[in-house]
Amino acid sequence: MTNLLKRHTDEMGITTLTLSQPERRNSLSLGMLDALGEALEDIAADSATRVVVIAAEGKVFCAGHDLKEIRDQLDSHEFQLALFKRCSEVMQQVVNLPKPVIARVAGVATAAGCQLVASCDLAVAETSARFATPGVNIGLFCSTPMVALSRDVSRKHAMEMLLTGEMIDAARAEQLGLVNRVVDESLLDETVYAMARTIAEKSGHTLKIGKGAFYKQLEMPLADAYDYTARVMAENLLADDAREGICAFLDKRKPEWQDR
């Protein structure tokens, strides 16, 4: 890993990616995006990883894009387009990763940082965490963060965040569905990793099937979604782990997953 991003995998296959540039508010510079994208690409093919946790050092989870970097390249449309395209690619990597991703949110998550939280499958925040898409305040509407945000919360709530640029607290973020749980700072790691361990105990093959199907069916009309997921379930039953899981349940024993 680079000095921008730390990576650690424990004995249960929980890989933690930690944004480690607190002096720059863990901003999503092009370098940080490249580090995160490369790590996700590697993890996608890493059989040892079952669940991913995205965390950050310092008092800010992620302040979004690095405005100093953007200011230095204001006259380069080519750079700006490359930056936002790279960010979009990384967010899609999170969604398309065949393993569940949990955001561990301590501190502030704004703009593309809020986008990162919204892109994760699950999110746990400490009580003092805050969220915003404040681009409108500096004349740069949070258009790419809008994509993830509008798929996580209702349209009117997303538009309120985008149009006002105002901060919301963790409790409000939980009400809106941006995060799953809000806990005291002392319980953040315990809650995040208990959730991760619970998921890591499942069949990796089943999780891959389920996560992929979840996001795909969301974009379909109701009848098409049911037709698609019926086929997914029928194909899922052909997997060794599905047969093992059913037999283990009926035999009242713990399943032995083969991840296939």
TrEMBL record:
CDD domains: crotonase-like (cd06558). GO terms for molecular function: enoyl-CoA hydratase activity. Keywords: Fatty acid metabolism, Lipid metabolism, Lyase, Transit peptide. Coiled coil: none annotated. InterPro entries: ClpP/crotonase-like_dom_sf, Enoyl-CoA_hydra/iso, Enoyl-CoA_hydra_C, Mitochondrial_ECH-domain. Pfam families: ECH_1. Belongs to the enoyl-CoA hydratase/isomerase family. May play a role in fatty acid biosynthesis and insulin sensitivity. This is Enoyl-CoA hydratase domain-containing protein 3, mitochondrial. It comes from Marinobacter xiaoshiensis. The lineage of its organism: Bacteria, Pseudomonadati, Pseudomonadota, Gammaproteobacteria, Pseudomonadales.
